[in-house]
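Input structure tokens:
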């Protein structure tokens, strides 16, 4: 007796894509290092976690490594541990809508209710709560969020990233 699994090419493509998905959550290519141009460089998000939900902290810890890849052979030469990226309760982010950042009007009035001044302002939310909202509401998936925030990590840790 012979058993055989028969699937359509479309289903096989999905199965193959699952098998070929890498281990990282997100990768970002870095520019060439001025002293080590023989390496292609990238930052790789290897993991993330949050502390005890019962405590007072409201933080997300993102684990990042830098990969140095030999250009000629495309072989990973070294994986460097980078500083963990801590997104904490004090961070705020601009709230994004479908057409860009969401804005409101800051209005100042006198005691009689007369408008003295109106200024357009960008709306912001507490970072950790905003990330949770984006994921839970399915407004964005985790990869999109990491892609948007990795530029901030690069600017915060530029010195450590280039200290290879």
């Amino acid at each position: 007796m012979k058993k055989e699994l028969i699937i359509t090419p479309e289903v096989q493509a999905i199965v193959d894509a699952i098998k070929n998905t890498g281990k990282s959550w997100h990768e970002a290519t870095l520019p060439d290092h001025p002293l080590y141009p023989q390496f292609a460089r990238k930052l790789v998000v290897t993991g993330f976690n949050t502390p005890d939900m019962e405590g007072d902290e409201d933080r997300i810890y993102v684990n990042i490594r830098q990969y140095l890849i030999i250009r000629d052979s495309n072989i990973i030469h070294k994986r460097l541990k980078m500083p963990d990226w801590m997104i904490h309760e004090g961070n705020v982010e601009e709230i994004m809508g479908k057409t860009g950042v969401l804005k409101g009007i800051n209005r100042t009035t006198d005691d009689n209710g007369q408008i003295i001044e109106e200024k357009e302002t960008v709306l912001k939310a507490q970072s950790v709560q905003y990330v949770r909202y984006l994921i839970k509401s399915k407004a964005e998936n985790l990869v999109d969020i990491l892609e948007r925030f990795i530029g901030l990590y690069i600017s915060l840790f530029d010195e450590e990233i280039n200290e290879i």
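The mean pLDDT is 87. Residues 142-156 form the longest helix (15 residues).
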